[in-house]
Structures are given as C-alpha cells and as structure tokens.
Amino acid sequence: MEITKETLIRTRVQEMILQGELGPGDKLPSENELAEEYRAKRIDARNALVQLEKMGIVYGRQGVGRFVNEPLPTIEFAVTGTTSFSEKMQEQNIPYESRIIYADYASEKEREYYSESLRVADHVKIFKVTRLRIVNEVPCAIHSSYIREDLFPDIYSDKDSLQSVYNYFKTSGHEQLSSKDRIISTQFPTLEEMRILNCSELVPLLVFETDTYDKQTGDCLERVKILYRSDLFKHQLSDES
Question: CB within 8 A of 170, min separation 6: which ones?
C-alpha cells in the first residue's frame, strides 16, 4: 500500500506526541516547515494537521499556529451487564448525567432485527429508549435499550422515568440480572451521532452490544446497544455474569 505524504506527515506528528517529543501546549511545526521536511506540498501538510484537529489531538489558534491538546480525562469502565451506568460513575465519584433523547416504540425494521435475540412473538411490541450519557459535562455515549413490552406492559406510560433502565427492571421485580452474548466492535459516527456526541468524523466509536436476562426466570429483558466515544473511555473486560 502506498503511503501518501499527507498520511506520512499526520502519522509522524502523532508519533511525536505519543512518544513525548511534543507535549500538551507545545506548538507544532508550521505547514511550511512540515512540507519542507517531508518534501511535500503545503496542502498535504495542511490536510494532515486538519485531520489531527478533527481527531482532537491538536488545536489551532488563528494567526498563531497549532498546538498539542491537553488529553481528555479517561474514564475506567467495566464492560459488564450487571451494573448500571450510574452505579459505575458513582463508584468512581465522577459527575454524570443521563438524558433521555428518545422513548417510543421501535421501528418495524428495528423490531424485525432485534426480535430474535429478545425471543418475542410476532404480536409483541418492542419499546426503545435511548439515553445520552454525559460525563464531566462531556457527551460520551449513546445508550439504546430495546425492551419487551409483554414483560413491562406499563413501559410507555413510564417512559419519562427511564434514565436508568436497570433501576426500572429492579423496581419491576427483576432484581437478579445477567449479561449474555456480549459483542464489541467499532464504527465511525454518522452525522447525527457526530451532532449528539459533539465529535468529528475521525473519532471512532466503540460499539458494545449485549442481552440482559433475569437470572431467576431466564427471560431476556432487553437488547442493549451502546456507542462510546473511544477517546473518553478505558474499557475493562470482565467475566462477571
């Protein structure tokens, strides 16, 4: 694979930051300096630096230059299905907010996609609730739950109190929960996800999917899909069930 000058410059500057040659607040070489050093066109150097800005690694000051960003605080996060997001944040004494941004029945396409994992009959409706997770005043995750209405017949009328679905399950009598079939993948954000998470198209999203079960009855209560900004979390994998 041929490496373009733009890629070469971006990668080299990023390596300098990762290896400590450039630290937070340090000024980067100018576009002209980078173009001369790597025998590239100035537009290649400019595009490389613009990409680093979109990745959140550097920032620019009009008429002054570009500088290394302070790293965002990283949140330790255990990938399990048995503890709520709010409990995990409280354990670390981290300020957080959970904001409902959608609460209504899933679309027909979503219902068709998730009905198998939820093990629902054709007549059963699936309710979707999506929460925006805000940590340290930074939007960091979009958390969607697809929930069986047959197990929670009052969920539509309760939709405004679903900031924590786990708490809702427990108050509904499902106190022993387990997580199964966990899947982790990555994707780049859509335009809507970029808007909600206040990030650029070059910030990868970590996608975590799992099913939540009631240990006592064996019922699958929900299918979970969470999109995490990858620049804000460290994820600890666990065998907890």
Answer: 177
* Distance, C-alpha 204 to centroid of its chain: 8
First to last CA, the chain: 43
Q: How far apart are CA 63 and CA 61, in angstroms?
A: 6
How confident is the model over 8-26, as a mean pLDDT?
93
Q: Work out the number of other CB atoms within 10 angstroms of the CB of residue 82.
A: 16
C-alpha–C-alpha distance, residues 157 and 202, integer Å: 39
Written as one letter, the residue type at 202 is L
**From the DSSP assignment, how many helices (H) and strands (E) are in the chain?**
7, 10
pLDDT tens, 35-72?
A: 999 999 999 999 999 999 988 899 999 889 999 998 76
Q: Are 82 and 177 in contact (CB under 8 A)?
A: yes
Work out the number of other CB atoms within 10 angstroms of the CB of residue 18.
Answer: 10
Helix (H, G, I), strand (E, B) or coil at 23: coil
- Other Cβ atoms less than 10 A from the Cβ of 143: the count is 19
Give me the helices (H) in the chain, please.
5-18, 31-37, 42-54, 85-91, 108-118, 165-171, 191-197
The predicted model scores a pTM of 0.80
Q: CA nearest 178: which of 220, 223, 213, 219?
A: 213
The label of the residue with tokens 């500057």 reads 13
